[in-house]
Amino acid sequence: MGLRRKANSFVFRYLFLLISHSEAEFILLNLGICNCFLAWLGFNQQIPHRVEDPKTVVAFEEFCRDRLSHAEIVDILEGRSPLEAVVEDILLKMHIQAKCRALCMDALSHIRRKAFHIQQIERIAKIPVNEDNQEAFPLFYEVWAALDDREVPESFEVTKSIGKGEVDYPSWGDLGFQTPLTDFRMTGLLGLKCLHHVSTEFKARARQVLAATSNTDTWLPCAITSVNVTAWVMEDAKKDKLSVFLYKDYSATSQIFYTLHAFYFFSFVNYWNNSDAKTILDFKKVSEGFRDYIIIELEKITDAYISMKNYEEGYMNAILLDSISKL
Questions:
Q1: How far apart are CA 273 and CA 267, in angstroms?
Q2: Considering the chain, what is the average pLDDT of its residues?
Q3: Where is the secretion signal located (predicted)?
Q4: Contact 248, 213 (CB under 8 A)
Q5: What are the pLDDT digits (tens) for 189-236?
């Protein structure tokens, strides 16, 4: 494998010289071997002004992280310097020709947009959900109204477990809470907003999930599951596993994140139902398998998105919604 890798590296570097492109340009232009030989034979290549394939941005970001200092990467991600100044610096350091300036700027703008999305997500997640946060109360009440036709529980302290006490007495435990005002420690207000979104925007389906998972031996507490799912999406986003969804989509940060959460949530419910889980104690084992499974499923969606070559604003959010409808 080592010799093969070296041979491949030699061939590609030789091709770089033949077509007068730097390695960074090779990535930005998404060149393959056929492109290399066409260029070598003298066919002129038209330089696009924007990156169409989000996987190209992924590759370019990885290349930047390998070649630039930590301070330079932070400058790209946090927007400390104007984008134009960053682009000029990148062109110089990575030997990118001026004719690729617009393409480089487009790629860097996507990378910066993704970083902005993640910063916004983290900011909302740091807002605590407790008795002092008045913004949280209406969200709780709307979640209840979306999932249960009874009167809202008289207080957040009413959290009896499923199947105990008076069956018809409304309790936050009926929705899968332990203690609503402390259940969002991991995810803050972001977790509550994700639960609110999946409950109100997918009301009928969320009710079906609640009914199907509340009265079985493999009881799955919906609210707590949603909190865990929010944490998974946050973690995957910060580990750059969801980059293609955050690069190219111009939807509001919250919208694309809420849609990703809904896709994860309903996918996990299906995964749980098809697993060999016997009790809620199997949650950790099942969720570990799901974390790998969901990334593979998202890659399939990404490949479909790229093959359709439809890059209109909000399309990534739309294709996720379509995928949810097919679960």
A1: 10
A2: 85
A3: 1-24
A4: no
A5: 999 999 999 999 999 999 999 998 876 677 889 999 999 999 999 999
Residue 97, classified by CB atoms within 10 Å of its CB into exposed (0-12), middle (13-18) or buried (19+), is middle
Residue 146 is classified by DSSP as H
Token match 């940060």: residue?
A: 253
Q: Any idea where the domains of the chain sit in the sequence?
A: 2-124, 136-325
Looking up tokens 């809904």, which residue turns up?
A: 262
Q: What CA–CA distance (Å, rounded) separates 316 from 145?
A: 30
Tokens of 156: 């957040």
Of 231, 236, 225, residue with least CA distance to 273:
225
Q: In degrees to the nearest 10, what's the CA dihedral of 68, 73, 74, 77?
A: 170
Query: 32-58 burial, b for 16+ CB within 10 Å, e for fewer?
Result: eeebbeebeeeeeeeeeeebebbbbbb
